[in-house]
Design a protein that fits this description.
11 helices
């Protein structure tokens, strides 16, 4: 691999570019983004220069789609008409079903692989890019691919999952957690006023961290994974109703919650 094109040089795309450099990539990295973003990215040393999507598709060995999901879906058919025979297309979208289906429909067989780095911060834009963002994090690929080697060099833990398996999993591990945090923040806001909200400890701060997330990003995620998210919400609502009906007799739920927490902490520590 000698040439990489980052389409969407923001937090994820910029972090992938910087991560490649940190992992030892010596080739060219260019960007496809707005003129302002490219200027920032060049200033920060994230990409060398800006190019058009057509130039990226024709000359890059790897085209990395890091835009919002709907933008990725719009770009794929156009890429199919201009993609060079040497190029692989991958993406960083948070849902995989519709993206991988579009890749199969519009890109040559063997020239694409779906991807999802399970990493991020509340920051947005290329100025938040971090070459170590993926270190110790799970990075999903939808098939075995040579890209795995570079992702692992960045310090990520690669998991191979089909698009449907991925979307069901993240509905519970990512999308549900976002909606729970948002719902909790909204519930507290409506129930309490003024100084009452100050009567809170670290628990509320910790559990509402994700409530800061941008709806502009999450709208695409929820729309493209609606069925799986609906199932996850249904399961959560049923559990809450069960806990509500047996308040004071919730030992099993507390034990299950504590066990999952231990497993998560252990997996991060071992990773």
């Amino acid at each position: 691999m000698e040439r990489v094109a980052i389409c969407g040089v923001g937090l994820m795309g910029g972090s992938f570019a910087l991560g490649l450099r940190r992992a030892g990539f010596k080739g060219s990295i260019v960007g496809v983004s707005s003129e302002r973003t490219i200027a920032e990215a060049v200033e920060l040393g994230v990409v060398e220069r800006g190019v058009t999507l057509e130039e990226a598709a024709a000359t890059a060995d790897l085209v990395y789609l890091a835009q919002p999901i709907f933008k990725i879906l719009e770009a794929i058919p156009a890429l199919g008409k201009m993609l060079g025979p040497q190029a692989t297309v991958t993406d960083a979208g948070s849902t995989k079903g519709q993206i991988v289906a579009a890749m199969r429909a519009h890109l040559p067989a063997g020239q694409f692989v779906g991807g999802h780095p399970m990493a991020g911060t509340e920051s947005r834009g290329v100025r938040g890019a971090d070459g170590g963002l993926f270190r110790g994090r799970t990075y999903v690929l939808t098939a075995e691919h040579w890209l795995r080697g570079w992702v692992e060099k960045m310090g990520a833990r690669v998991v191979i999952l089909g698009a449907e398996e991925h979307d069901r999993a993240v509905a519970y591990t990512s999308h549900l957690t976002q909606l729970v945090a948002t719902a909790l923040a909204g519930t507290v806001t409506q129930a309490l006023r003024g100084e009452e909200i100050q009567v809170s400890g670290p628990g509320l701060i910790d559990t509402t961290r994700l409530a800061q997330s941008s709806y502009d990003v999450w709208r695409d995620i929820l729309v493209t994974n609606r069925e799986e998210v609906d199932g996850a919400l249904g399961a959560m609502i049923a559990r809450l109703e069960g806990m509500r009906a047996s308040l004071g007799e919730n030992e099993r739920e507390f034990a299950e919650g504590a066990e999952l927490r231990r497993r998560l902490v252990r997996s991060v520590t071992l990773g």
